[in-house]
Design brief:
The chain has helices at about 55-65, 70-85, 95-105, 110-120, 120-134, and strands at about 5-10, 15, 20, 30, 40. It is of the alpha+beta class.
């Protein structure tokens, strides 16, 4: 069983099944052998007040599932709805690929992978909003 290997920077914090763990002063690796563990790097987390755009709200839903603050079934349903809504806006090939990968991850109950794919859309969303303000 290979598991998940986390490489942590000095003083980096990570949420594992609801427990916040902080690394010491040196880089380290942690091997998580138990399957289906919810892991969220806190540097990847979005503050609730910052979830103001459609993509950031979708990322936040995935984050709530990972942190255990949302029911997994209802959270997955909300995440899939959010991804479907995003697919109505992002019509370029690369964005569609990211959304397809996020959908697969959500369907397979892998909210971390969905979160990672959706985070890749944040810069694209920022560019879309910037272009509409001009």
């Amino acid at each position: 069983m290979s598991g998940l290997v986390l490489k942590l920077a000095p003083n980096e914090r990570v949420l594992i099944n609801g427990a916040v763990i902080e690394n010491g002063d040196r880089r380290t690796k942690i091997a998580i052998k138990t399957p289906n563990v919810n892991v969220l790097r806190l540097r990847d987390a979005i503050h609730p007040d910052s979830a103001r755009t459609p993509v950031s709200r979708a990322v936040y839903i995935a984050q709530l599932i990972l942190s255990g603050d949302a029911d997994p079934v209802e959270g997955r349903r909300q995440l899939l709805v959010a991804i479907e809504q995003l697919s109505q806006v992002f019509d370029d090939r690369d964005s569609r690929l990211l959304l397809a990968e996020a959908t697969v991850a959500a369907v397979e109950a892998n909210p971390y992978q969905a979160l990672r794919k959706l985070r890749d859309l944040l810069p694209r969303e920022a560019r879309l909003f910037a272009s509409t303000k001009e």
